[in-house]
Amino acid sequence: MKKKSSLTLQARAGYMFGGAAQTTIVTLINVGLTYFYTNVMGINIAKVALIMLISRIFDGFSDVIAGVVMDRTKTKYGKARPWILRMVIPHFIALIAMFTVPHTSENLQLIYIFIAYNFANTFVNTFAGLALSTLNSLMTRDADERSQLNALRQFGAPVMELAISAFLIPAANLLGGDQRAWIIVVGIFSLIASLCYFLCFLWSRETSEEERGANKETTSAGKGFLAVIKNKYWYIVLITWIMATFYLTISGTNLSYYCQYLLGNVDYMSIINTAEKLSTIVLTAVAVPLMIPRMGKRNMMLLGACIVTAGHLLTFVAPLNMKLAVVAAVLRGAGIAPCFAVLFAMIADCVEYGHWKTNLRTEGLIFCAATVGQKFGQGVASTIVGGLLDSVGYDGTLAVQSMQAMEMIEKIYLFTPVLCFGTVVVLMLFYRLDKELPRIMEELEARKRTRNC
After folding, report:
1. DSSP 299-328
2. In the chain, what are the domain boundaries?
3. Are 97 and 119 spatial neighbours (Cβ–Cβ below 8 Å)?
4. This prediction's pTM
5. Which of 264, 310, 378, 400 has the most CB atoms around it within 10 Å of its CB?
6. Mind spelling out the 3-state secondary structure of 344-363?
7. What is the C-alpha R_g of the chain?
8. C-alpha separations of 297 from 311, 334, 388, 393, 433 in Å
């Protein structure tokens, strides 16, 4: 007999909208923020990159604080949902604030960027993103349903990524290309994203305290950290997420420069990104739901990483061929679909593994893997791009860049996907949790029955 799902259609839709909202800040940073600061505001790229790197220190603390706070939150809405609601308005403000840089001295501009960037990424995106990720393990304890939820999240996310990638720079240029134009376009995306977060809160539901298997006593932060560092699969998923974020940030940031200076038109960026995101969306909607129960999460991640790596190798044949760039983008998107469809479900499985191994359940701290990995990857990746381009004399105010800068932009474009997803392939060779999870879940259920006797 087929097991009845514990998730309503409305709850699934809510989680999908949450995925669309959560990726907005990340995508704006990856696709347009550095380009805006350097080519619209004329700020030195190395200084922008340094701000993003320094911000990782604050991000590390904010992720830990958010994880502890989330594990200690107890409201009538649950532990994760209330934080999604609390971040709706700050999320709207934060997105716009990153682009409202005042026209003053460069030092004051850099101070403003530091504050606005950290408000958006270190505070708002930390709490909202961690709440959404944690919600996956709180809406259901069924591994297949978690994978389905994550697939829906990864359907909503690339839809928003597609919209931003396709329209952000072209729409801003259409409105004049100045700061005012960028603020108008970003404001529209900000409003849509905040509405998506509100729908996520409104429609999603957390399971009961008993079904979550939560600890009746609050776990101390120290014990929680010790439990996390004993979780071997947490490390594998953490590094996987860092590699995925490296790819999104480095490729997203560099692609605008690649299209403008090597392909000759910055608007080509929207075509390449659209090809990649559409491929991801179609595969996520059509093929991924059929693949999850047949292949398992580890095999899907492995397959996807291999497709991304092999597909992108086509660009080495003719790096300046636009048609080949689009074909490679479609193949990358096809590989990214299964990778991101299972990533957060794998983290949710790490929660069960940690609970089984240590008898402590720390969803908030475990899901710090997502936000720590994402933002650490973002900061370091942005610094890598900025440092490499600055080292060869890149200047965003120039219409024509030096030959050394052009060569560096090309190398970043060619090698980033291969290095990032090649690493993921190696990591998946050591991941065995899919096979172990059924036994782990049986033992956890047996422990719960024993406690209730």
Report:
1. HHHHHHHHHHHHHHGGGGT-TT-HHHHHHH
2. 10-204+231-452
3. yes
4. 0.73
5. 378
6. HHHHHHHHHHHHHHHCCCCH
7. 21
8. 21, 16, 35, 43, 9
Q: What CA–CA distance (Å, rounded) separates 140 from 146?
A: 7
176 Rama class: left (phi>0) / alpha (psi -120 to 50) / beta: left
When the candidates are 3.40.190.10, 3.40.50.300, 1.10.260.40, 1.20.1250.20, the CATH number that belongs to 10-204+231-452 is 1.20.1250.20
Q: Is the confidence at residue 210, as pLDDT, over 60?
A: no
Within 8 A by CB and 6+ apart from 87, the residues are 124, 127, 128, 131, 197
Contact assessment for residue 305 and residue 428, using Cβ atoms and an 8 Å cutoff: yes
Q: How far is CA 390 from the centre of its chain?
A: 26
**Contacting residues for 269 by C-beta, under 8 A, at least 6 apart:** 31, 165, 169, 255, 256, 258, 259, 260
Q: Which of 35-49, 150-164, 171-185, 231-245: highest mean pLDDT?
A: 171-185
H or E stretch covering 245: helix 232-261
Residue spans of alpha helices (H) in 99-141 = 106-117, 125-139
